[in-house]
């Protein structure tokens, strides 16, 4: 049975948490890429991977349009640079909601608004207007009759929690109370949630050996290796749970006991500089795999067993334009082409591969397809479709055999993989079909293929067994007419067929 990365894990129902919502795993979508995929490509990857919750760092119009009618639950953000204007003007906030929420809802399933990000620790000058910004945005939702459908909150850094272990003694930085207490009042009165960014990687790196790698990575620990809260006698087997409970205890310390927590960012980098030895593929895989299982199996935390904490993984793509150490560029689950950075280990019954290589599929030209139509499809894929067709140039590995069918196979299949292997992306005016037969020939190895020489190409998995086959005549036009990419493609097709 073919299985996708997180096929069940992003969508399965578990228990009801304190906020009366089912816990979920989502992903953050950053855009600091030198070759950022088109919004339709981003959404194709999300759909192919069955990811049902995303958090955007802004309210990009093209992205919101691409997400329309997908059912994906979206958290949009007000960037920090816009916070001052919104926090100083009720009308500015109303205009923002009108333009970025009302104009798209309900076609785009917006469920929350993140007002800024880590404002208390990164922008002290904006902290003064943060509460006003929250209230103004909420008032605009009330006016639009959306306040019961869309939550308003602000992601905060876990660094605002002092003395986080033992969790029962944790408290918030008291210097932040003039802003933090009104925020908590707002969250409580609007039935919203406390958004928290948790990074066990940094907790581990900065602990000077006090935190073990196993404890940071959710690795199973024997009871004598678990951290014990001496006040409650609760046992903690990972950093994540300890920080979540520390936040709950810190809230209860100032008499807020009914605000649920949502983790808006967490993850682990897969690559680092020479002085970042623990930023590795294996550690990133271990952390995120264990995180997903931990959230969705409703283990909960020691303080609240059985109550899972909905969490957004940081992040969907590696962002090569991020400043700072090498690790900053390598938190993604995928590269810009939608190829998985590593394969998450999610089940005990065999690997669930990030791009469905357990049942590898390819997009190839149909038997008897019109050569002119195939050529038109090649031209579109190599142009507006952003496929790198240089391997098909004379003297390159995929030039031979020099015929339109072989070249169409390469162009179509590469586009199909770039789009996350979404069935809708394998149509090309009904000239293409999905197959389980690897079309690689000689040194021309297709994306995901073993090729005739037995080498891997763009695959991080160890198993590429194909057991099922299927064919689908899907409509690429319907999918891509939602975006500019297909508009350009249609023009090219029309010119070729004249």
UniProtKB/TrEMBL annotation:
Q: What EC number(s) are associated with this protein in UniProt? A: 3.2.1.39
Keywords from the named record: Cell membrane, Disulfide bond, Glycoprotein, Glycosidase, GPI-anchor, Hydrolase, Lipoprotein, Membrane, Plant defense, Signal
What is the recorded membrane topology of this protein? Lipid-anchor; GPI-anchor
X8 domain segment(s):
361-446
Where mainly found? membrane
Q: Which GO terms describe its molecular function?
A: glucan endo-1,3-beta-D-glucosidase activity
Pfam families (alphabetical): Glyco_hydro_17, X8
Q: Which residues form the signal peptide?
A: 1-18
SUPFAM superfamilies tied to this protein: (Trans)glycosidases
Q: Where in the cell is it found?
A: Cell membrane
This protein's GO cellular component annotations are: plasma membrane; plasmodesma; side of membrane
Q: Which reaction does it catalyse?
A: Hydrolysis of (1->3)-beta-D-glucosidic linkages in (1->3)-beta-D-glucans
Q: Offer one example of a GO biological process linked to this entry.
A: defense response
Its domain of life reads Eukaryota
| Family statement drawn from the similarity comment of this UniProt entry | Belongs to the glycosyl hydrolase 17 family.
Q: Which PANTHER family match?
A: GLUCAN ENDO-1,3-BETA-GLUCOSIDASE BG1-RELATED-RELATED
Q: Which protein are we looking at?
A: glucan endo-1,3-beta-D-glucosidase
Name its species.
Answer: Lupinus angustifolius
């Amino acid at each position: 049975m073919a299985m996708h990365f997180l096929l069940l894990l992003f969508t399965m129902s578990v228990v009801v948490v304190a906020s009366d919502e089912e816990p979920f795993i989502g992903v953050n979508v950053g855009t600091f890429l030198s070759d950022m995929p088109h919004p339709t490509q981003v959404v194709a990857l999300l759909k192919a991977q069955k990811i049902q919750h995303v958090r955007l760092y802004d309210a990009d119009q093209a992205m919101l349009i691409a997400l329309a009618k997908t059912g994906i639950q979206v958290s949009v953000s007000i960037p920090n640079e816009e916070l001052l204007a919104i926090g100083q003007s009720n009308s500015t906030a109303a205009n923002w909601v009108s333009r970025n929420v009302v104009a798209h809802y309900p076609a785009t399933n917006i469920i929350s608004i993140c007002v800024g990000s880590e404002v208390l620790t990164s922008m002290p000058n904006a902290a003064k207007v943060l509460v006003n910004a929250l209230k103004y945005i909420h008032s605009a939702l009330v006016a639009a009759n959306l306040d019961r459908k869309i939550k308003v909150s602000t992601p905060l850094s876990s660094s605002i929690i002092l003395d986080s272990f033992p969790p029962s003694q944790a408290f918030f930085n008291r210097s932040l109370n003039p802003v933090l207490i009104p925020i908590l009042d707002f969250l409580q009165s609007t039935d919203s949630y406390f958004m928290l960014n948790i990074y066990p990687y940094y907790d581990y790196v900065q602990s000077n050996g006090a935190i073990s790698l196993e404890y940071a990575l959710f690795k199973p620990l024997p009871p004598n290796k678990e951290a014990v809260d001496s006040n409650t006698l609760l046992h903690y087997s990972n950093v994540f749970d300890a920080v979540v409970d520390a936040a709950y205890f810190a809230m209860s310390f100032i008499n807020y006991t009914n605000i649920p927590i949502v983790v808006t960012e967490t993850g682990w980098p897969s690559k680092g500089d020479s002085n970042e030895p623990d930023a590795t593929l294996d550690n990133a895989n271990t952390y995120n795999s264990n995180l997903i299982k931990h959230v969705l199996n409703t283990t909960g935390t020691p303080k609240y067993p059985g109550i899972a904490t909905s969490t957004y993984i940081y992040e969907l793509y590696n962002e090569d334009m991020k400043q700072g150490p090498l690790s900053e560029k390598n938190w993604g689950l995928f590269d810009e082409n939608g190829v998985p950075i590593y394969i998450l280990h999610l089940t005990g019954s065999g690997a669930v591969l990030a791009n469905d290589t357990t049942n590898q599929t390819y997009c190839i030209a149909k038997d008897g397809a019109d050569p002119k139509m195939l050529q038109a499809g090649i031209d579109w894929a190599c142009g507006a479709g952003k496929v790198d067709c240089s391997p098909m140039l004379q003297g390159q590995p995929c030039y031979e055999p020099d015929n339109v069918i072989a070249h169409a196979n390469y162009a179509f299949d590469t586009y199909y993989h770039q789009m996350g292997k979404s069935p809708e992306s394998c149509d090309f005016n009904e000239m293409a079909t999905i197959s389980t037969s690897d079309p690689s020939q000689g040194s021309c190895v297709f994306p995901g293929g073993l090729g005739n020489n037995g080498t891997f190409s763009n695959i991080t998995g160890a198993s590429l067994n194909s057991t099922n086959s299927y064919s689908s005549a899907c409509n690429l036009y319907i999918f891509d007419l939602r975006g500019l990419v297909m508009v350009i493609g249609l023009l090219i097709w029309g010119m070729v067929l004249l």
